[in-house]
Structure formats: C-alpha cells, structure tokens
Amino acid sequence: MTSPLLHAPTADLLDRFASLVGPAYAVTDHAALAPYLKESRGLYHGTTPMLLKPGSAQEVAAILKLASETGTPIVPQGGNTGHVAGGVPREAGGDLMLSVERLTRIEDVDPVGNTLVCGAGCILADIQSRAEAAGRLFPLSLGSEGSARIGGLLSTNAGGTAVLAYGNMRQLCLGLEVVLPTGEIWNGLRRLKKDNTGYDLRDLFIGAEGTLGVITAAVLKLFPRPRGHQVAFAGLGSVADALALFERAADHAGPALTGFELMPRIGVEFTSRHIPGVRDPMASVHPWYALIDLSTADSAEGAQALMAEILEEGHAAGLVRNAVVAANAAQAKALWHMRESMSPAQKPEGGSIKHDLSVPVAAIPAFMAAADAAVLQAIPGARICAFGHMGDGNIHYNISQPVGADTAAFLARWREINAIVHAIALDLGGSISAEHGIGQLKRDELAEVRGGIEITLMRRIKDAFDPAGIMNPGKLLAQRL
Amino acid sequence: MTSPLLHAPTADLLDRFASLVGPAYAVTDHAALAPYLKESRGLYHGTTPMLLKPGSAQEVAAILKLASETGTPIVPQGGNTGHVAGGVPREAGGDLMLSVERLTRIEDVDPVGNTLVCGAGCILADIQSRAEAAGRLFPLSLGSEGSARIGGLLSTNAGGTAVLAYGNMRQLCLGLEVVLPTGEIWNGLRRLKKDNTGYDLRDLFIGAEGTLGVITAAVLKLFPRPRGHQVAFAGLGSVADALALFERAADHAGPALTGFELMPRIGVEFTSRHIPGVRDPMASVHPWYALIDLSTADSAEGAQALMAEILEEGHAAGLVRNAVVAANAAQAKALWHMRESMSPAQKPEGGSIKHDLSVPVAAIPAFMAAADAAVLQAIPGARICAFGHMGDGNIHYNISQPVGADTAAFLARWREINAIVHAIALDLGGSISAEHGIGQLKRDELAEVRGGIEITLMRRIKDAFDPAGIMNPGKLLAQRL
User: Fold this and answer.
1) Which of A67, A436, B26, B421 has the fewest CB atoms lying closer than 10 Å?
2) Is residue B368 part of a domain?
3) Which residues of B touch A110 (CB under 8 A)?
4) Model pTM?
5) CATH number of residue A260's parent domain
6) What pLDDT is attached to residue A1?
7) Which domain holds residue A370?
C-alpha cells in the first residue's frame, strides 16, 4: 500500500485487531456501533469497520503498535459527548475506533494528599461521587457529566461551570498514563504537586484530542469540601453592568467565587418555555441575568453573609435590579439547571448556529455589542442567545434562527456566521474555541487564524510522536498528505 | 566544521553576532562577564567568548537565526539566580550567552481581566510592585525576587512560598512570546483564561530551561489583593504532627491557606545564630515548627478568626505545643525572613549537601524517617536541616556537615548522598526536582531515574524544535552526539 491511511483495513487485519481484545470486545454490528458514531450536533456522520474495547493499557498498546505497523487510523473515544466531532470517525470510513469505556478502575483515593487515581473510562459523575464519599470535592462539573469520561475530558481539556475557582481539566490533573502511537506506555501517573523534571509532557497530551496518543489513566486533584454554598440569580440592565458586578464579586469573594454565569432574557424565556421544571424565578423582567455561585471553606453562614454583601453592594451601585437567593440545595440546583438548559432549550426554537469563544474578560461588553450588530445585519430577526462563563471570558454565543425561517437555509450559513463572529473575537485578542476544542469542526479555521509558525510547531510535535500518522487523523490538524 | 558545536566561534563570527545588537550590548570584557558566569552554589565554572544583550524580540530572533545557521550554542540567562547551573555556560567554553535583561517593558496592566503583559527581563519584585500599584496581587514570591527575572522564572517553572494557594509560575502565566531556535517568533501573548485551540505550546516552553527557545515576553495572571493576612509560627512535636496540622488547616481555610512551611529545630538555631535580625520567637524549644500563612478576601478580622480557629483546634488535638501569631506586618515579615534564611544560615556551618525533592504530601513523614536513617548511617554526625513547602510535598532536604568535619571531603559525597536520598523519594512516588529544575546538576540523574520513553519523547521534542541543537545544549538533556 503506498498510502495506507487512505485504505480501509482488510478482513484479515480486522481479525488481527479483534484478537488483541477478544471477540466480545471487537464490535462490528451496525446497531451496536450506532451510538458511537452519532455526533452530538448531527453535523458529521462517520463510519467504522470495527470498534475495539480494550480492557487494559497493555491491550491499548498492542492495538496502537499493530496500527502503527499497518498504517491503520485509530479514533479514540471517551463518552462521545464532545461538540467538535473529535471523537467520531471520519466520513470516508476506514478509521478503527477505540473506546476507553472498560478502563473504569478507581485505584486510589488519598484524602490527605488530595489525589485520586483512575482509569480513562471512568464517568465524571462517578468520580464526583467517589470523591464525595472520601469527604472531598472533585470540582469539574458540566452538563454531560453523567456520560462524559475522564479520558475524553482530559483530551479536550474540558471546562464547565467551576473553572473560575478550580480551573479546567488541565489544572485538575497531576499525572497521566498514556499509550503512545508506537505502542509504548508512558507511566506519568505522578501524584506530585511540584515536579520540575523536564518538558511538560502531561500538558501536551491534555487537550491534544487523542492525536498524540491514548490517555489510559490519570491522577486527579481533589479539594476539601466547602462548608458554605450559596447561589443567587440577579436581574441586570446590561452586559456592562454584569461585568461591573463580576468585578465586585471577585473582589469580595476572592477564590470563594466559584461561578459567575451570564444569561440573556431570551435564554430565560426559552428555558421556561421548553424545559420541564424550569420557571423564571422573578416576577420582574430584565435584559440580562447573572448566576452567582459562592463556596466558602468556613460555614453556611459565611457564604450567606458574603452573598448578601455582594448583592447589597451591587444594588447600592445600581447594578442589581432584582435578586433571588436560593434558600436550599434544591433551589440552587434549579437555578443551575436553568443555566445548563440554555443550549438544549434552543432546539425547539429551530436551528441554532453556535460559538464557543473567549475574549479577555474586560472585553466582553465590546464583543457582545459588535457581534450583535454584525449578526443582526447578516441575518435580520436572528435571535441571539449568548450566555456562558463570564468570569472566564467564555461566551457560548449561540444564535437561534428567526421565527418562521427555513432551518436548513439558516444552518447553511453556519461557517459564514462563524467567520463574522470569530473575526470580532480575534480582533479583541480572543479565541475561536474556549473549551470545546477543534476536532473536525474548527480544524481548517484554526489553520487560517493562527500564524503559520504555531501550526508548524504543532505539526512537528505530531510527527515526532506519531510518525505513522495513525492517531485520530484529520482531527485538530489536517491529515498529512 | 564537521561538529560545529564543539568549536568556539571565530572572531569574525563574534563580530557578526555583536553587530546584531550593537557594540554597547556585546560584552567580552572579563570583569563585566564575571557576574554572568558565577553560578549560585559555586559548583560550576563556565566561560563564554561573548554575552549579547538584545533589546527586542527581533534582535533575539536575529541572534538565534545566525546561531542556527552557524551551529553556535546559545545560553539564555535571566537573573542568574538558579540552583542547577541551567543559565550559565558550560565549562568547555564556546557557548555564547544571551541575557534578557534589557527586555523590561511592562506593557499592559488590566485590573479587570487581571492580567499584566511584560518583557522577560522584568525583575519579579518590580512585577509585584506594579501589580500592587494597580490594586492587584502577583503572588509568586521567593528569596531571590529582587534579582530573579520573569524569563528565567518561567523557564524553570519557579515555585516559592505561595504555590499552595496560587500555583507555580506555570499556573500564573496565560501567554508567551517565544523566539524559536530557528529565529521565528511565536506570538502566543494571549490574555485568555480559556483557550482550547491545539497543543499546549505555552506549557512546553515553561520549564524547558531555555532548551527549546527564548521566552521574550509573557502575560501574567493577577489576583485581587486579600484584605486579611495572618502569619503564625507553631511549635510541634513531630513531622507527623505537622502533617496532621496541615490537614486541619487546609480543611478549615481552603484556598485561604496560602502557606504551610515546615522547619526543624536546627534550622531555627542556625538562623538565630547567623542571620542578623532573626531570633527564636519562642521561649520554649520544639523539634519542629510550622509557619502558617493565611490570606482572606474578606477582612483582617476574618483572617484572625480563622487563624485562631486553626491554632485552637491544633492545640486541643495535641498537635500545637506552642504558637505565636504575628501582631503586625513587620512581625509577619520577620517570621517569613527566618524561613527564607534556612538555606543561607547553613553556609557558616560548613558544607551543605542539598536536595529539592517532592513526595506525595501524605508520604512526608515516611520520607523523613527513612532519609534521616539512611543519611546518618552514611555520615554519622551529619546535621540534617530539612525544611520546605510542606503543603506542596516539597522538602529542601539539606544536610550540613558534621561539626569539625573536612568540608571538601564532605562535599565530595554530594552525588553519593543525592543517590541515597533520591532513591527513597522515588520509592515513595517522588521527584528529584520539585522546583529548581534539572540544568546541568541533575541532567544525568534524570536520564537514569526516568524511564527510557520519557527521555525519548523529550529528545524528540528537542530535535523537532531545535534541529541545529543550539539552544542551551547540555542542559536538561545531554548534548546530542
């Protein structure tokens, strides 16, 4: 084969791969494969001749070694909850899939050192529960936590709702075990807070979207469980007021400010209309809302006092027009549920063109003003539902189609609108992907917006780690010709 | 030249390098070069034909381009405060030096986005002051902050005394500008909290000790200034008690615990004896001490109450035998000064064999017991002065020579004792360099203790970024033959 990556594996080769994991874990049945091929937004439709479910790092190593020797492309997959088509195979077919779903061992929970060692197949919610059982917190939290797996969360450097205080997945990981494309196993499962011994290989694999190797296990950081927790929902007049309130909240709360989420009026309307159990918690109507989340080490009273201080000061400064504070955990959960339903609530409203961008926090009002004007000029009547992690500068700038418009025609303008909105974010020093990654969705755009040397360096790393080009080809970087 | 790296540059080539920065910034005078060649512990004695002081990233680029074309080794240097001989030239001579000391611009301080953009030559103390003037905190703090420069601090991923709450330099940096060995400039000066757009180049350059390129500028993170600050000094019975107290302090204070430093009795004696202005703050004598540092967002009273709670609980549990709380900023500074004088105070006591290691926090008592036994067996009468950042698992396990012993004969056992102590740390899952890095001092040992694949991956990265092998050769990795 002159260009093995362009050819589908032969039946004989598939048998060799299957023998590495045993027939029970080599899936070829169409119905069984379907959920692994379905990409979250339905924008991509990949196919695969076989899905492998290795039960150990050694089996992963055997698969990658054979893949490198035979030039067989391998697509690793975690919980398949990603939004950029990074974990599904390409449409052309021929990509073998490797699911980490059987690597679910939780080996060690150390409440003194605040670490947890687990397999890449563990589901986020299970890790959260296991930490809680040890009296500790694993703070990563996001909408898909019931099915997202640690390996995928690491490979996309997942963010979510607690990044403001605790950081992304990158900041929550101390060590990794990675199987390299050549089949070697790197054991970097260190539980150390400080370790300056050479190049930072860990952070190179985190966020690499499975293009440099397969993460098989990780050491995660745990935290003391806060004793105080308060969630409030504040009605605001403008994005600029939201920014001013964020500054005050951050100043008063310091690291106790665990969330500051921005939501528009239209998002509250969409969720109230379409999501069971969600209702507008206020009688009055406001153009913008902030969800403020505080976690304090000391006590429930400490958190209450802090929230009262922030809201009172915000009110006195004319920033907070109305506010409700969750009286208990159930009410707090309901407020977060509204926030997490912002994206799903757009579905019944027709097509939605989405963005996951970031700008420097101080630039959010300028970004919103410029983007709104440009989008409404391009698509009069478009319903902009921009929400997100204001404290991180991360806006999910989503646009629902005009009422009554043709959905397919609207969605056909996805890339055109992306280009308009991303140009505004980039002008302000922003990023075209804050937390979802690149995958297939933004691969070509990344190459366009980042200077040549940056892509060149990434390509050099890719070639150095994966000389056969087998690891998740065509994701993040274009496939080498 | 068949092996250009082994030859010193010709006079003609030196002239070409000098012309890139102008004669005023191309130093060849022996007296003027001396401070750049002096390594902090006097273990290495390098020489150089010329030190270049570029005034811009463009001049750095011109230097590296010419170096790559001519195979001339370049050693970048910041404030020359490192402890592993990573920033001084090799003894063989022929290495050109590049100081970033003229890159001292502070371009942008954004108190809303909490970022500061500065040149790699800025001195840490100046950055701290500039942040303070903007009502913000830049938390990195270490003994040499009056002369250490940002470029060197990034290249060694410096730690210091506030890592527990704020992280190492890696966690305090959002973006970089780096000149590559080939002379290309990577502008990664992003001020974004979230940016998932490909491989994490930033973290690859941080901690690379100048072997992959020259960091010329950085975006640093700022923080709100805490309103409450408390420092206490507690007398303890054992390392195990110190660990138990740390756990309680972390549980009560959460992210408000900004420092938890361990010190032995002998360290308090050494500092009281040799460091002007330092005195034992307690009348009673204890085998171990902890310095506890709290920073709270809310108020001075909040920090006081929290410290009282931790000390009272520690006392009730039989962990804290005596404690003093600093009554004002001057007293707090005096307690920190004692801690920071632990290493210099060993100098008048003769030779000192040093370690900068880390283990999982929970393993510190086991490490100390095993290391003490092994060291005292090897060198009866050795005076172990082990202190450090307990909350980070980072112990500076330093050993002063026996009273009256021959200093040269004692120091001749440096590597033998390192091997004994490091083996114990590694057995416990530890690291041979927690915060100082590898440089020349630990280069060969790193290659021994880390599995082959890890060094292989680092070598592949090095070769991909620096094909001519000009960047700080022989540091971190052995020079390629």
Assistant:
1) B26
2) yes
3) 360, 362
4) 0.96
5) 3.30.70.2190
6) 32
7) 350-437
